[in-house]
Design goal:
Blueprint lengths: L1 E6 L1 H33 L4 H37 L4 E7 L2 E5 L4 E5 L3 E6 L3 E6 L4 E5 L3 E3 L2 H11 L2
Helix pairs in contact: 1-2
Length: 157
C-alpha cells in the first residue's frame, strides 16, 4: 500500500487528539464518578462537597493542558525532524513501513506496530516508544483504506 499526503500541523493535531482522547475520556469519567461519590458521602461536610465538585473540573483542566502540550511537542518534533511543515510524505506499507520525505527515508519493522486508531481523516499507527505514523484515509495511491485496516488488524492481533 502506498499513501501520499501533505504532512501538516492540522494532521498532527488530529492524530494526537485521537490518540490521547480515549485515555483522557476514561480519566475524566473516573474523576467524575469519584467526585460524585465524595459529594454523596460528604453531604454533611461542606468541605468534601466542594472537593467533590472541584476535583473533576481540575482533572479536566489539567487534561486539556496536557493534551495541548503533547500536541505542541509533536509539532516541534516534526519541525526538528523535517525542517519545515507542510511537507510531502509517502508512507509505504508492505513487508515493513517506509516513511519517505524529500529529505529522509525511514524503514520501520512491522514488529514495532503496537496498535492503531482511526479518526475522521487518519489512521494513526502507534509504534514502540509511542512513536506514531499517520496514514491519510483518502490518499492511497496503491491499495485502499480497508486493505490497510485489515493488514493492521492482522498485525495487532
Amino acid at each position: 500500500m502506498v499513501n501520499k499526503f501533505q504532512y501538516t500541523e492540522d494532521l498532527i493535531k488530529e492524530g494526537m487528539k485521537k490518540n490521547i482522547s480515549i485515555k483522557a475520556y476514561i480519566l475524566v469519567l473516573i474523576s467524575i464518578l469519584y467526585g460524585s461519590y465524595i459529594v454523596i458521602k460528604g453531604l454533611e461536610q461542606n468541605v468534601l462537597k466542594v472537593f467533590g465538585i472541584i476535583f473533576p473540573l481540575v482533572v479536566i483542566f489539567l487534561l486539556i493542558i496536557k493534551i495541548n502540550q503533547s500536541i505542541n511537542i509533536a509539532i516541534k518534533q516534526a519541525y526538528v525532524t523535517y525542517g519545515k511543515l507542510p511537507i510531502e510524505m509517502t508512507v509505504i506499507i508492505k513487508d515493513n513501513i517506509e516513511v519517505i520525505t524529500s529529505e529522509s527515508r525511514r524503514t520501520i519493522s512491522l514488529d514495532n506496530v503496537k496498535s492503531y486508531k482511526i479518526s475522521e481523516n487518519l489512521i494513526t499507527i502507534t509504534l514502540d516508544a509511542y512513536l506514531m505514523v499517520f496514514v491519510k484515509k483518502d490518499s492511497f495511491v496503491e491499495g485502499t483504506c480497508q486493505e490497510c485496516i485489515a493488514l493492521l488488524d492482522n498485525i495487532c492481533k
